[in-house]
Amino acid sequence: MDLDISDKSLPVFAALDSKVRVRIIQLLSKQQMNVSEISKAIHLSSAITIMHLNKLEAAHIIKTQKKGNQRLSSLQIDTINVSFPQQLYIPYESWDIELPIGQFTNFDVHPSCGLAGQTGFIGKVDNPSYFMDPKRYEAGMLWFSKGFVEYQVPNYLQPNQELEMIELSMELSSEFPFSNNRWPSDITVSLDGKEIGTWTSPGDFSDIRGRYTPKWVYNDMNQYGMLKSFRLSKHGSYIDGQHSADTLITDLDPTKNAWTLKIAVKPDAKHVGGCTIFGNKFGNHDQGIKGKFYFSDVDDH
Length: 301
Known about the structure:
The protein is mostly beta strands. The chain has 4 helices and 19 strands. It folds into 2 domains: 2-75, Winged helix-like DNA-binding domain superfamily/Winged helix DNA-binding domain (Arc Repressor Mutant, subunit A, Orthogonal Bundle), CATH 1.10.10.10; 86-300, Sandwich (Jelly Rolls), CATH 2.60.120. Residues 1-95 form the HTH arsR-type domain. Keywords: DNA-binding, Transcription, Transcription regulation.
């Protein structure tokens, strides 16, 4: 489950704010249980136990099903990720871009792989040839087991300006046929051949539906990823604020019209678990690949 600091996440935070409900989660992590078994284990009446179960179910932490006259409960998730707002004061001017995830200009992908749009799959799944389908620009989700996709990032820098920092954000996860919440994958992001860093995705998530994922997407398919921030500065490269590489922004050629952004799962990575990229109207964040480019006037130095 992927959360942010917003009102939408309050039911989950409220559900976890109870020693009793934490105990119930611990019990259900070992096995599926009915109300009577849980009630006995936590030493509370069935009525109060059901109240706690209802709160956990409303927060999508557990799920219940009827079996005869029994109500069976089981855990629906195994991980909760909380993204905090990233505040960073930058005393520079900037420009912004947002690339649709289907606007890649080069690729080398291996099955399982595919593209998906608002109404269904784009072309045939597990056939890399369809990554050149003209409708790829409509994709809101793409995935591959290993390989890469590349995008051209425009450079609007003027001759009298100097690049100070670049921030990129994108929603990513691993790739497993259908899904696997525990499937680590090393996803490497680079700009013009210079690595910003490698992030290890913990899984390919389908424990709950993505906020924006279209209804046609099956419940056991990729539902959402994690929003990751990649920063390139004069001091090094960072992923979510943590140092990830020694690549400097001065390593980029400022005279180019565009830089190549590469998102890859290397064949020799420790965890070759694929990559899923979520775009507009998919996953938990309604966005493509966003970039913010900070610059200063040379005269100011």
